[in-house]
């Protein structure tokens, strides 16, 4: 019988358990969490079979999912080679700052332990086992970054076959480039936009609370947790700086067109953006 | 009996009729529209009392709502002083490029005709009388820009009392500053972001179709009609250019902080943006 151990039974970890159980109820699932309530909820809901210690869970497992905060994941990666793991065990995680984790995971490669960095692009502001959902990963991109050829990749996909994730096996460089462009840069831009508009309206009669849906959409992500985003900026510094420059080039182009009152050029710029943006929604 | 004439029975004009009727069914509402289907729908639904010509409608009305496209509004503003209007008539409109309309409306001031520029921050991609809604303006900011003290303002608010709009009586300068910051600048930024991220990912394995909800929210408005947005850029050029500079200053600050790896400064920047953005949703 295949055995899976999930360390961290919060929203992501508990959703993985739900998906694995739905896909094959013969898989044995054990779990651990510093918060007893999460483990108890999972047992009572029949979503895991046993609450175990990290050491016990890791040593019994064929596949280990590390689903805690990034610093906990890194500590656990360091601990794994000291344990008596099953031969052929596959270790994966769900941390979003992947560069740091992949660097830490070199210790696993050194011990011939297969590690597949994982990054499901799903989540919400909710936390805890109760807020997990079977369909949390549905249609979401789920990055896999293997350290050992394709070892472990099919096993993870098979366990999560009912998740309907969009699997993307990528290099760490391409992962960082992608999250830089699609997530980190937009956060920098939305945060800058909020401050610029707030300054612009400081001395007028109307404040940003009058803004319509378009502004709210464009700046929504600026309300996210500053702790998390500060850590992300420092983890992907170079890529983000390059992309800020790429953005500034585009902004300089449209600024020049507006300055020149060049109707055709402005129209071309907006048409190009419209086309790209519409393709994304069809993608 | 108070008489209202609505020129243009599309989504906005027909929604105004719905709201006026709901507020006071004794008000006589006449309407005109180049598309006969809109007029017929409004009559059959009991939302207006009579389909009339522009001239006839304008001459019988106590309050005139101009709800056509901006160029039609401007032509109609020029025509109004040549008609035999009721003394004390109040003229208002719903065009979004207000500077052009307020400039055109000087001809009304010259003829002692009260004009209150109007800009309800509501709408959607839908068109036509059938797509109008009684609650279209609910909780939306509705700008009023009077040319003659407060004349006409209370009359418009009273007619639309059930709309639950958030009325803001402002100067044209403040209006342009506000829409520049809350609508025009975000459009420039979202369009630039789409192009920058697209360039950044051109040579990687993963395209923007893998982007998650945050990116989609931040760039949603970039999919809007380039014709309309080109016209808007040219109508509010100076304000937009100033605000691009304001934005670039904010971006330069966070770029420098990331470059320096200054954790405290990055955190302060994101915390400030978070605070402002959260206040908007509470406003």
From TrEMBL, chains A, B:
EC number: 1.3.1.12
One of the GO biological process terms: tyrosine biosynthetic process
Biological or metabolic pathway of the protein: Amino-acid biosynthesis; L-tyrosine biosynthesis; (4-hydroxyphenyl)pyruvate from prephenate (NAD(+) route): step 1/1
SUPFAM superfamilies, A to Z: 6-phosphogluconate dehydrogenase C-terminal domain-like (SSF48179), NAD(P)-binding Rossmann-fold domains (SSF51735)
Catalytic activity, as annotated: prephenate + NAD(+) = 3-(4-hydroxyphenyl)pyruvate + CO2 + NADH
Gene3D superfamilies, sorted: 6-phosphogluconate dehydrogenase C-terminal like domain, NAD(P)-binding Rossmann-like Domain
InterPro entries, A to Z: 6-PGluconate_DH-like_C_sf (IPR008927), NAD(P)-bd_dom_sf (IPR036291), PDH_C (IPR046825), PDH_N (IPR046826), Preph/Arog_dehydrog (IPR050812), Prephen_DH (IPR003099)
Protein name: Prephenate dehydrogenase
